[in-house]
TrEMBL record:
Pathway: Pyrimidine metabolism; UMP biosynthesis via de novo pathway; (S)-dihydroorotate from bicarbonate: step 3/3. Belongs to the metallo-dependent hydrolases superfamily. DHOase family. Class I DHOase subfamily. Catalyzes the reversible cyclization of carbamoyl aspartate to dihydroorotate. The gene is pyrC. It comes from Yimella lutea. It comes from the Bacteria. The keyword Aminoacyl-tRNA synthetase does not apply. The active site is at D312. Substrate binds at H66, L67, R68, N98, N285, H316, F330, G331. This is Dihydroorotase. Pfam families: DHOase (PF12890). One of its GO terms (molecular function) is allantoinase activity. GO terms for biological process: 'de novo' UMP biosynthetic process; purine nucleobase catabolic process.
Amino acid sequence: MSTEDTTESSAYLIKGADILGRGAGDLLLADGVIRGLGSIDAPADAIVLDADGLVALPGLVDLHTHLREPGREDAETVATGSAAAAAGGFTAVLAMANTNPVTDTAEAAEHIHDLGRRCGLVDVHPVGAVTKGLAGEELAELGLMHRSSAAVNVFSDDGKCVHDARLMRRALEYVRAFDAVISQHSQDPRLADGQACCHEGELSGRLGLPGWPVVAEEVIVARDVMLARHTNSRVHVAHVSTAGSVEVIRWAKAQGIKVTAEVTPHHLMLTTDLLATYDPTFKVNPPLRPNQHVQALREALADGTIDAVATDHAPHARHDKEHAFGEAAFGMLGLEQALQVVNTVMHRDGTLDWAGVADRMSGAPARIAGLAGQGRPLAEGEPANLVLFDPEGQVVIDGAASQSLSRNNPWHGRTLHGQVVATFLRGRATVLDGEVNS
Ligand SMILES: NC(=O)N[C@@H](CC(=O)O)C(=O)O
Ligand SMILES: [Zn+2]
Ligand SMILES: [Zn+2]
């Protein structure tokens, strides 16, 4: 088997989609590629889909997904996470390394890659751990993971910060040889100690919850961009959450330092105020921040300082999440609502046009992760990876309808704009009429 889809799939003629907001046109998908674009007569064997009012975007790419397999198949599996991704319009996800066992060997990476291929709903690209067992002490087999059939290009100890500057330097030097990238969970463990469960500020004080300050993120971002400059290597800042981190990244990019960054849908929309509910659904790392940070993140995503939206989809079983706020696990779901959130907070007010959305959710993440067949423009001869999205209409999110095995969905009960109608992975409809085709 190869990543290239070998299953027979029908030809599809998508009629009258708004192609990246540039106006209505038809798209003919056949043999896994976009065969025609413009005004097309239906070939006899093609399934015709009326896409009037739908926008066509390249298939979304998530730089930051937790699939939980192996080890926590009660929270998510490659199959259920892939289904959630397809339902959200994704055609590729990067699966974080904090599984059990940790993805820190070539064999472990190949195993996850193979599970993804067997599901066939999205391309699953394992992220390799930076350090063995995420212990922060010894580098993992970065080169072997890269040279394996999983072709790992992104390395991260996500969930933990690579705190040792000497190890971070060595990791950056090492991956430079094959143009891979280190994705950092920027959280100084001394400034954000074991008790910290939310943003440190006036509200955390009032609620009596121990918080962690924005500077715990910012000092690591600042250190890492200097290490990236020193090593002339690529660092990626996972889930940026503060205005100060944005300032540092903006400065670093202006110096020509090879830094990229992502922001999550939840950090673009939700604020610290939700702490007042004491609902552990809203417990996440990095924590939800006050509104001025949310505004800075939106501006940075719009002007390209932040390159990509990444979900940090972090499923947790009920018995890990349903505790008092202080004891509950960190993390929330994100794959299924990411595009709706971006439409709601970034597109509808004109901040990001559809080409901008396509860049931040598909083109840029594919480039950062070095995925050749993803994030491509919608053009003739390109792989037929795309999503059809109905941008109009309001939807009240029902967390119980999720493809995910977990229910820690921060969007449950909220009103968002738009809906994914169909997703195509190399010409195969993984989602049609909003239903996943497993
Ligand atoms: N985001 C989270 O709050 N949790 C993530 C780890 C992480 O992304 O840091 C998880 O694995 O659950
Ligand atoms: Zn993280
Ligand atoms: Zn994460």
